[in-house]
Amino acid sequence: MRVLGISGDPTGKSKVDTLVKTVLENSKYTDTEFISLRELNIGPCKGCFSCIKTNHCTVQDDWNSVESKVKEAEILILGVPTYYGAAFGINALTHSFLERWFSLRHKGIKLNLKKVILIIVSGGEHENTAITNLKTFFEIYHGVTDIEVIVSRGSIPCLVCGEGESCPISFAIEMYGEGLKITPDIMPSLEKQNDVIEKSKLILSK
Ligand SMILES: Cc1cc2nc3c(=O)[nH]c(=O)nc-3n(C[C@H](O)[C@H](O)[C@H](O)COP(=O)(O)O)c2cc1C
């Protein structure tokens, strides 16, 4: 089985990268690869339809270097942070990448994908929009029905921006209540999410 792990984390510091790598490192399959979208320049679909006849996107950017990897992958691990999660679900970096899959669904679906593992890291319990939207993307548009989901709690921006205890639109105050003191013990670190780490280790291990 060819296993492709894709991280849509633009920071390189979030739990998204860590969890995608944890699944890959503990997988029973040896043909694995990790790709970070933040290291690539992949813009959105331009709607030019030049891919219709050839199933090949002619827009010149780093999609060209991952297109064949996406086509060959049999298992995809997709790690995604939720940005404006209640509105959009997934972040724009991941969205641009997924829009380019349009070139792989003309005259049939040009994928070998059998299974998708979604890793959603959400600060404020906005994972459900991301899960619903991504399931629709893979099931309805790309014909993959074997989808598993891992959810991890990330840090909402108001916990780390420095103003979260007093800002009039602080989402941290909304979540944790008035008089909030932002201390290390309320930060949702991965060390406190042992169930998430264990699930990530086990999911492809047997
Ligand atoms: C621009 C931006 C918007 C965000 N919007 C939301 C949001 O609407 N809902 C939410 O749950 N988390 C939101 N987050 C938090 C991210 O989900 C979180 O930063 C990400 O999952 C990484 O968390 P970590 O650094 O703790 O791993 C946002 C983060 C950024 C940078």
Automatic annotation (TrEMBL):
<dbReference type="InterPro" id="IPR005025">
    <property type="entry name" value="FMN_Rdtase-like_dom"/>
</dbReference>
<dbReference type="InterPro" id="IPR029039">
    <property type="entry name" value="Flavoprotein-like_sf"/>
</dbReference>
<dbReference type="InterPro" id="IPR051796">
    <property type="entry name" value="ISF_SsuE-like"/>
</dbReference>
<feature type="domain" description="NADPH-dependent FMN reductase-like">
    <location>
        <begin position="1"/>
        <end position="146"/>
    </location>
</feature>
<protein>
    <submittedName>
        <fullName>NADPH-dependent FMN reductase</fullName>
    </submittedName>
</protein>
<dbReference type="GO" id="GO:0016491">
    <property type="term" value="F:oxidoreductase activity"/>
</dbReference>
<keyword id="KW-0288">FMN</keyword>
<dbReference type="Pfam" id="PF03358">
    <property type="entry name" value="FMN_red"/>
</dbReference>
<keyword id="KW-0285">Flavoprotein</keyword>
